[in-house]
Design brief:
By secondary structure, the chain is mainly beta. Helices cover 0% and strands 50% of the residues. It is built from no helices and eleven strands. The strands form two sheets. Strands 2, 4, 5, 6, 9, 10 and 11 form a seven-stranded mixed β-sheet that branches. The protein is globular, with a radius of gyration of 13 Å. The model has no long low-confidence stretch (mean pLDDT 96).
């Protein structure tokens, strides 16, 4: 089994920054694509960012491109999401997810999910 635990969420003011972390357990982290997704109340869960196993390729939703940066530290089996220039529209529960094989932006492709961490951006 693979376990993912998000942390770093909280309340920030618009224009502020926050860094989310996702700590992974298991023996296949270095061969797993990792993704971040978010879900606001009453809305579908949506793709935010993804990174390939070696960190050579990254993908972003248009809504966060230029503001968010996904990265990973395979030695620490941790993936990060640096969020800058936050707006109230970024308010959501943020989830990290993992899958083996090709890096994708489709939540249905991901096999393992964390419990989520709340991010709230005030105006």
């Amino acid at each position: 089994q693979v376990q993912l635990v998000e942390s770093g969420g909280g309340l920030v003011q618009a224009g502020g920054s926050l860094r989310l972390s996702c700590a992974a357990s298991g023996r296949t982290f270095s061969t797993s694509a990792m993704g971040w997704f978010r879900q606001a109340p009453g809305k579908e869960r949506e793709f935010v960012a993804a990174i390939s196993p070696a960190g050579l390729n990254t993908y972003y939703a248009d809504s966060v491109k230029g503001r968010f940066t996904i990265s990973r530290d395979n030695a620490k089996t941790t993936v990060y999401l640096q969020m800058n220039s936050l707006t109230p529209e970024d308010t959501a529960v943020y989830y990290c997810a993992a899958r083996s094989g090709r890096t994708t932006m489709n939540l249905k492709d991901y096999d393992y999910w964390g419990q989520g961490t709340q991010v709230t951006v005030s105006s």
